[in-house]
UniProtKB/TrEMBL annotation:
The species this protein was found in: Candidatus Woesebacteria bacterium GW2011_GWB1_38_5b
Example GO molecular function: phosphoglycerate kinase activity
Entry keyword set: ATP-binding, Kinase, Nucleotide-binding, Transferase
GO cellular component assignments: cytosol
GO BP, one annotated term: glycolytic process
Name used for this protein in its record: Phosphoglycerate kinase
Enzyme's top EC category: transferase
Pfam hit, one: PGK
UniProt catalytic activity: (2R)-3-phosphoglycerate + ATP = (2R)-3-phospho-glyceroyl phosphate + ADP
InterPro entries tied to this protein: Phosphoglycerate_kinase, Phosphoglycerate_kinase_N, Phosphoglycerate_kinase_sf
Cross-referenced Gene3D superfamilies: Phosphoglycerate kinase, N-terminal domain
Family affiliation: Belongs to the phosphoglycerate kinase family.
Enzyme Commission number(s): 2.7.2.3
The organism's place on the tree of life at top rank: Bacteria
Length: 306
């Protein structure tokens, strides 16, 4: 797998797909962006996490960063670890002379939220990526403004950094093989010259901004994706034992294949999150006959007690 360091990004447009799937907390409605006087890194409205160092301005190239942005307008970012994980790639591209376009999705908007047939203002939707724009403002000492890049609404963070609005507002994003999806892939691809994947946690998705754009543009891996693959490969190829795997999440249909795979590979599997409520399915897996290695499957007991 080629790294972004193998790519000549100078005077090129680069599409970087990031992972913004982060936890949120409700703090009440957010009326708008913080005034400049309130935009310090110590304000109680900023996302949790260490601020990244400012990056120097770059020259005329454009990078597209695709991200899984789970940050509703009336929510605040609780843990910005995943946002910070892609900063080094964004900084590198900008320092090498690229303009960066960041793109991602937030939640699962229904068909009524689609931009093509919207019944309300997109920036008033709870699925807007507006909080992500605010987060980048703080990281890059910027003050973003609502704008458009070709036909795509979003925010200009600074002259070298642009955040696209929630890609799931476009019906072609989740159906890249459909006629609308193929057209959407072409429109996304037209924004950039190079594709960079920096979203390990979303790379399994058959979405236009992941598989579609990568099929039309030269593609490379971001720093964080390479790190994730290196660590996972080491565990799968030569694990230190006893090996304990922790699996959580909300959707049992997407996590069960991992539970099944790890059941015949790990020594212990700890299951938590909402999928731990699916006790019957997990118990069936626990008693499934497996040749050779078989893990002890331990399911968390969920409680509302604090």
């Amino acid at each position: 797998m080629k790294s972004i360091q193998d790519a000549d990004v100078k005077n090129k447009k680069v599409f970087v797909r990031c992972d913004f799937d982060i936890p949120l907390v409700a703090r009440g409605p957010v009326a708008g962006f913080l005034p400049e006087s309130s935009r310090s890194r110590n304000t109680d409205m900023r996302a949790v996490g260490s601020p990244a160092a400012p990056v120097k301005q770059a020259s005329s190239f454009t990078s597209f960063v695709r991200s899984t942005s789970a940050t509703p307008r009336n929510f605040e970012i609780v843990d910005d670890t995943r946002l910070i994980s892609s900063i080094s790639t964004i900084e590198y591209l900008m320092e090498e002379g690229a303009n960066v376009i960041i793109a991602g999705h937030l939640g699962r908007p229904s068909t009524e939220f689609k931009i093509q047939n919207s019944k309300f203002k997109i920036n008033e939707s709870e699925f807007s990526l507006r909080p992500i724009a605010k987060w980048y403002d703080e990281q890059f000492s910027a003050y973003s403004k609502k704008s458009k890049l070709n036909d795509f609404p979003g925010w200009e963070i600074n002259t070298n950094l642009f955040l696209l609005e929630n890609l799931r507002f476009f019906e072609g994003e989740e159906n890249p093989s459909s006629s609308s999806g193929q057209e959407f892939v072409k429109k996304l691809s037209s924004l950039a010259d190079i594709y960079v994947n920096e979203a390990f946690g979303a790379s399994h998705r058959n979405h236009a901004s992941i598989v579609g754009v990568a099929s039309l543009l030269p593609h490379f891996a971001g720093f964080h994706l390479l790190k994730e693959i290196k660590i996972l490969s080491r565990i799968l190829e030569n694990p230190k034992r006893p090996l304990t795997v922790i699996i959580g999440g909300a959707k049992i249909e997407t996590k069960l294949p991992m539970v099944k795979k790890m059941h015949s590979f790990a020594d212990y599997i700890l299951v938590g999150g909402e999928i731990a409520e699916q006790t019957k399915i997990l118990m069936d897996e626990e008693h499934r006959k497996i040749r050779g290695q078989k893990a002890d499957l331990i399911v968390a007991k969920l409680t509302t007690d604090k």
